[in-house]
Amino acid sequence: MFIAMNRFKIKPGCEQDFIAIWEGRDTFLQEVPGFKSFNLLQGPSTEEYTLFSSHATWEPREAFEGWTRSDAFRKAHANAGARKDIYLGPPQLECFEVVL
Fold first, then answer.
1. pLDDT digits over 15-70, tens only?
2. SS3 sequence, 35-97?
3. Which of 1, 25, 20, 6 is nearest to 89 (CA)?
């Protein structure tokens, strides 16, 4: 199994705006072979930002890589960054192979 995570730093007070973006977004993930699950996680808050992470599981890694080259990926990310005012920088992609 393979896990792809994006970490987002969101400006204080903009947390609900960020969540609403994800709630209203069509990810097209259900139509992609190898996609298993998705979660949006809210982490700790500091004076500077609230940490969020998107967490998607895939089987196998190649399914995720195929998704990043697909029309579904392009459609899902067509409006990415439309609300740049709520982000403190770009998301940070982290990828993991499940070993246990």
1. 999 999 888 877 888 888 999 999 999 999 999 999 999 999 999 999 999 999 98
2. EEEEEEEEEEECCCCEEEEEEEEECCHHHHHHHHCCHHHHHHCCCCCCCHHHECCCCEEEEEE
3. 6
Residue 7, strand partner residues: 53, 92
The whole-angstrom separation of Cα 33 and Cα 60 is 10
End-to-end Cα, the chain, rounded Å:
10
The CA distance from 91 to 40, in Å, is: 13
- Select 2-97's CATH number: 3.30.559.30, 3.40.50.300, 3.30.70.100, 2.60.40.10: 3.30.70.100
Report d(CA 2, CA 98) in Å as an integer: 6
